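Researcher: Let's do a round of design. I'm pasting the structure tokens now; please hold your answer until I've finished.
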């Protein structure tokens, strides 16, 4: 959990010294770019892990329901927060670098893909998540496979759009300051 003592200790011992070592004249822009990359990487890594390890198409109904309900309980609040933070940091980074047309354009396109990912989650995956949370794993509804397949399609869309955003943000950071 992000508030756990081990996370705070890791942050204090690893990240803060790095941030404080960045050159003073460019510090705030560098910090924003660094945090932006970390946040979008956390989001992309999470959706990639779900895509790679949780393909539900071969699961039995009870296994699918149990697995998705568990993922929803653990990720349904955290992931949108991480996505929102990453989006806000990308917007701030774009505004701070508006005089660099290449970087500004890359970040605007990244924001577009992040918004597609967020909207896909909000209006595609999360309504299905709400339905699945009401199911008994031992007696899912007859259309469970249809909803499973829709959920998976939405997840593949958000995985692709999140990875495009990650690539664009990373690319925008690959310049000398």
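Researcher: That's everything. Go ahead.
Model: Designed sequence:
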């Amino acid at each position: 959990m992000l508030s756990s003592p081990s996370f705070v200790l890791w942050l204090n011992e690893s990240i803060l010294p790095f941030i404080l070592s960045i050159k003073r004249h460019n510090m705030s822009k560098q910090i924003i770019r660094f945090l932006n990359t970390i946040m979008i990487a956390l989001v992309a890594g999470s959706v990639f892990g779900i895509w790679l390890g949780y393909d539900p198409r071969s699961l039995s109904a009870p296994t699918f329901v149990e697995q998705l309900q568990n993922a929803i309980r653990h990720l349904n609040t955290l992931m949108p927060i991480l996505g929102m933070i990453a989006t806000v940091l990308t917007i701030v980074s774009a505004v701070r670098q508006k005089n660099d047309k290449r970087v500004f354009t890359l970040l605007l396109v990244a924001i577009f893909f992040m918004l597609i990912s967020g909207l896909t989650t909000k209006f595609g995956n999360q309504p299905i998540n709400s339905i699945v949370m009401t199911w008994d794993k031992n007696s899912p509804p007859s259309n469970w496979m249809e909803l499973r397949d829709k959920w998976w399609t939405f997840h593949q869309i958000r995985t692709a759009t999140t990875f495009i955003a990650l690539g664009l943000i990373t690319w925008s950071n690959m310049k000398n300051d």
